[in-house]
TrEMBL record:
This is ROK family protein. It holds the Pfam family ROK. Belongs to the ROK (NagC/XylR) family. It comes from Nocardia gamkensis. InterPro entries: ATPase_NBD (IPR043129), ROK (IPR000600). Coiled coil: none annotated.
Length: 325
């Protein structure tokens, strides 16, 4: 770490600071989504002392909204508690370059190459880390949620899109080039598949994301449906719904089978909105993987424990630990 790193008045490095905080410390976590920014100040037990949500403005203005929300939450604390806040973490969507502290790209929120730098640390007066939201959510599920105690875990977040994390040998796999865990963009329907927003054809996401499941049901039946959860709910009585889910599970299994061969995870943890389907998803996915695997054992498939809170809970845990270790 260079000597030109920004520092707090206490002399602590703002960008690095990868060490556990003492138990009496509080942390500020922000989870930035496409529609809302959620924030919390929490203690070591995970109890929230201040909570807030604001709408996500489009474009780089979102960073001003993050700064304001953090400031508001800190100002709501009694002075004695305010002094106990020792670190913050902001988890961002899209592509994030943590080494250069740059929010590289978010198609949802509409920013490109925003230099985050020490803007939050200066405004809030505490060291502030930034990270990729899915990396943090997956790490939290692995280390503190459904994957606790396992060394080799694949976390798949199924929502509007599909991505996740991979932990091998007790370490979260990271890459200096691009982002690890873009499971949604493994092509599985190259012939006759649907176009994917990424530019490829027949990606996992075009069949197995929440939006894709709802669209497939409407294409097949001509009937509008509120979302993937309703398709899952109809499965036992509606053969079209069952067929759509089966197709989604097949695509997901096709996409994951290469990762299972490559990394032999003991456990696959499913998070995100679509995972709300529960056993209607985990059991057929485990069967579909078992059908496809000959050499390596089929991993267990379980639901995440943090649900939709994985990003925010993960931000607090990340701020407390100081690193995704
Ligand atoms: Zn794609």
């Amino acid at each position: 770490m260079g000597t030109d790193q920004p520092r707090t008045s206490a002399g602590e490095s703002i960008v690095g600071a990868a060490a556990d905080l003492p138990d009496d410390a509080l942390v500020l976590g922000l989870d930035v989504g496409g529609t809302t920014i959620k924030g919390e100040v929490t203690d070591a037990g995970g109890t929230a002392l201040a909570v807030g949500t604001v709408a996500t403005p489009h474009g780089p203005a979102a960073f001003d909204a993050m700064g304001e929300l953090g400031e508001r939450l800190l100002s709501e604390l009694p002075e004695a508690d305010r002094r106990r806040v020792r670190r913050a973490a902001v988890v961002l969507p899209g592509l994030v370059d943590t080494a250069r502290s740059v929010a590289v790209f978010s198609s949802n929120v509409g920013w490109r190459d925003v230099h985050v730098g020490d803007r939050f640390a200066e405004r809030w007066g505490v060291p502030t880390l930034i990270e990729h939201d899915v990396a943090v959510a997956g790490w939290a599920e692995w280390r503190y949620g459904a994957g606790q105690g396992y060394e080799n875990v694949c976390v798949v977040i199924l929502g509007t899109g599909i991505s996740g994390t991979l932990s091998v040998g007790g370490r979260l796999v990271r890459s200096g080039y691009g982002q690890v865990g873009e499971y949604g963009h493994v092509p599985v329907r190259r012939v006759g598949g649907l176009p994917c927003p990424c530019g490829n054809t027949g990606c996992v996401e075009t069949v197995a994301s929440g939006a894709a499941i709802a669209r497939a049901y409407t294409r097949r039946t001509g009937r509008e449906i509120g979302g993937a959860a309703q398709v899952f709910a109809l499965m036992s009585t509606d053969p079209d719904a069952a067929a759509v889910v089966e197709d989604a599970v097949d695509a997901l299994a096709d996409g994951l089978v290469g990762i299972v061969h490559a990394a032999c995870p003991e456990l696959i943890v499913l998070g995100g909105g679509v995972a709300g389907a529960g056993a209607a998803l985990t059991e057929p996915l485990h069967r579909a993987l078992s059908d496809r695997l000959r050499l390596v054992p089929a991993p267990r498939v379980v639901l995440g424990e943090f649900g939709a809170r994985a990003g925010l809970a993960g931000a607090a845990l990340f701020a407390r630990r100081g690193a995704l270790t």
